């Protein structure tokens, strides 16, 4: 039934160690519910970084409730940790984390489902205790072994090792999945998930061979029939992408990966040759977020930022998540069993 | 005895599907012989791109003969395919390939050992037929799926999929191991090796799970006790490297990965802000090669280019190749067997 059950699936109470990545600043409740219903772990992403934080918090809560209404399985939320120049956590992060804690406090049924909180970007610091005390499982996403060790020592329950080939906001240093993952699994004792470059059963089997307990995927799930919230043109841009069509440009907190187009090249040139107009950093951040959301909602994939992982190059079909997730787990089990049984020594053992 | 024997080890006649990468423009006969003696496939690299091509060819032949004297196992040579602006193969490539064919023609004993020719960088075109006719196994290294398909269709026997995290001369497009490898294994039927990011048994097991038949490693083998040809300071720089210490700069044929230092940052800045002195391209290429060789021979790791893969960050010991290679193969088998036997269904099957 659950072909790759392990300590991670047991901890989180899911069938398959396959997680849908945070995909902020987008609308993700349907996608998250579809992944959770399929036996993986869906993730409701933060809806944006609005000026009106109360409105943002209301939207986030609506997304959480919409997801909860669509599944009776566990699901997660993802909240990036933004910090100012003094290392102080930004208001949007604080209010979103508190929104989750409040929502669970007043609704026991929701608390039974929304059992995982994923943080990404900056170090969650004091929030680690707060998340733990609320009874949540705390996953934290890192792009370096140093950050993995720091987070695990501070009490984070699950590390998501994020290779630089991931989509959206990428780690500040370009450490790639094949290098990062074994470094991280060697350095920490808590369960580790790989994100960045995974798209199918082979990616899962391969991550397990590196010592991971599971995988998280963003781009693969965006191109799914469950994802009716996103503009079809955005999804088509993922299907059309070829090797070399992606680029890491200057994002909101740090590097950001998406497709090469007018919008990303504008940011890339701005970074590289210094000839771009001087734009106020706050205004630039607002433009980036607005541009990301425009691509997703209106399908403007030329002048809007299209965030995808490098793996978009290999994605050319729209999956049905309900079948895909269990098949991916079964496929990974089959690969591992097949490889083990093909080993010369194993053959001798059976002969 | 040979825990991961497969179609690749059978094709090449080695014990373990573990290849030592081409490491030009350096001196590699001892290293290559050590890897071959350990049951993997060592590779003698081209010694440089000298102005005096006859002298270069003599050096290359000396390196090949030195390797042959140190092992009675199969070994490979690696020759990058350089092309000019009109797509014509450069003289150094032509003369090095002919040197190998000549050496084998006049020495049957050498021909029985030097059974594999690896090409890298540009497309080997008409040389494919020439290499095949000489009875050599032809391996070709690619950084994209398109190039893998083209090479396999043209008759290349083995594809080496080179993720951008590799050291030295990297593919022109930044496609990383976790994305590239499954794309390539899906696209071609010939044996595929992964290079870029691999350092131990987990990397091999992981590559096999992605559908590869083996792995190639450069940086891991440089830091070995067999490698007395390289300056200890160079090897120490690999041991000291941390995550984020590597950089892809403008190399000889395209991007090149090495450690961040005065030499690589000079090239990086030259690329990025356009403020570097205008240097003649031929002169610049000569400086780069001289700088690479100086680092390796004199240990000048600050003003010399130190080529390493991103995996240098994870390498902190000097291995004994004779033990490392068979242990890596045995370890990969153990990982695959362990993962398969831990699968819930397998347990049921045995209960």
From TrEMBL, chains A, B:
The keyword Flavoprotein applies. Pfam families: NMO. InterPro entries: Aldolase_TIM, NMO. Keywords: Dioxygenase, Flavoprotein, FMN, Oxidoreductase. It comes from Rhodococcus oxybenzonivorans. GO terms for molecular function: dioxygenase activity; nitronate monooxygenase activity. Signal peptide: none annotated. This is 2-nitropropane dioxygenase.
